[in-house]
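Q: what sequence does this backbone want?
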């Protein structure tokens, strides 16, 4: 399989990156982050989630953030929705895409969304139908596609099962998520191949957290299967509140640096992206988790 010549990146920093942040992050800062990401050339941004504010307080300003972003032509804005209530709140804010999220592990499903895998699919069924009826695209995320913080290793068959169920209810695209970043390249390839049993190559993406430092290698392994769409988080922000100890997604800057070095086009301006990462890292009072951004920043200030 030849490597893709172009890759589409979804920056999930404003959502996955910030959802677990303990300090308050004002809506204005989230809006500014979205602005800087689109200025850097990101054409897909996961902005927020319409989940219970009791479960994830940091995303309680979802509607305010969606109302505040300055939409740019050619950029798609997505949001997470766990149920019909979330979809009803999200639709008036005009997302281009909604993301339903299930897990390949029962224990994680219970911890994250308080129901079994099967119940979650039944909950998503009307959500998917209602979103598609409004011409809103629907993506599905499959959490714990390689490993689970509660159950350990997750078999590819579990991923295939969730992918099949998502396909059956009309989900258009699935993201194979290594929620806790335990995956290594061959395991990640097996998980992606499981999703590819039910979705076309153009409808499967990778979502790799970098807890064990494997996310870039896993991205390369996915590229070798022809997968060309990935989620990443600027400055490597984030982690899931229900996956203790798991760190953020692979840093968007690191993925862009690797892809450009391989001659693969992303449409993203790495320098602008480094600025976006510096903006949010400064606000949080934290160093960027991106090695490439840190190197570029050090070179700039030397
Ligand atoms: P529940 O407690 O089972 O549901 O939560 P409920 O229907 O009994 O509702 C509980 C309360 O929440 C009620 O309020 C509802 O009205 C309210 P109360 O009556 O107690 O005042 N509620 C809502 N409020 C706002 N928006 C809603 C909503 N739904 C109910 N949509 C529920 C079930 C799914 C709501 C809850 O478990 C939840 O919100 N979980 C969110 C978990 C989450 O956001 N996790 C992080 C995102 S997933 C992720 O990070 C993984 C990913 O990155 C991929 C990967 O890396 O694996 C995508
Ligand atoms: Mg995630």
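A:
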């Amino acid at each position: 399989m030849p490597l893709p010549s172009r890759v589409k990146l979804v920056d999930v920093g404003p959502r996955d990156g910030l959802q677990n942040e303990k300090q308050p992050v004002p809506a204005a800062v989230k809006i500014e982050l979205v602005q800087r990401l689109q200025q850097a050339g990101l054409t897909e941004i996961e902005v927020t989630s319409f989940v219970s504010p009791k479960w994830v307080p940091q995303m309680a300003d979802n509607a305010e953030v969606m109302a505040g972003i300055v939409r740019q032509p050619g950029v798609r804005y997505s949001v997470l929705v766990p149920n019909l209530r979330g979809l009803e709140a999200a639709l008036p804010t005009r997302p281009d895409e909604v993301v339903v999220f299930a897990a390949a592990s029962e224990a994680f499903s219970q911890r994250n969304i308080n129901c079994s895998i099967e119940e979650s699919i039944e909950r998503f069924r009307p959500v998917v139908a209602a979103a598609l009826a409004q011409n809103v695209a629907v993506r599905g995320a499959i959490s714990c596609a390689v490993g689970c913080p509660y159950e350990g290793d997750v078999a590819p068959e579990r991923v295939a099962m969730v992918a099949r169920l998502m396909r059956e209810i009309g989900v258009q695209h699935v993201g194979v998520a290594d929620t806790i970043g335990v995956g290594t390249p061959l395991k990640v390839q097996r998980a992606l191949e499981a999703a590819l049993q039910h979705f076309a190559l153009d409808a499967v993406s990778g979502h790799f957290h970098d807890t064990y430092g494997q996310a870039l290698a896993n991205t390369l392994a996915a590229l070798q299967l022809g997968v060309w769409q990935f989620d990443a988080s600027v400055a490597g922000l984030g982690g899931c509140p229900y996956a203790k100890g798991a760190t953020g997604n692979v840093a968007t800057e690191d993925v862009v640096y690797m892809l450009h070095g391989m001659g693969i086009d992303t449409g993203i301006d790495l320098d602008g992206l480094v600025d976006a990462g510096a903006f949010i890292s400064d606000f949080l009072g934290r160093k960027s988790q991106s090695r490439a951004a840190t190197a570029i920043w050090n070179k700039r200030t030397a």
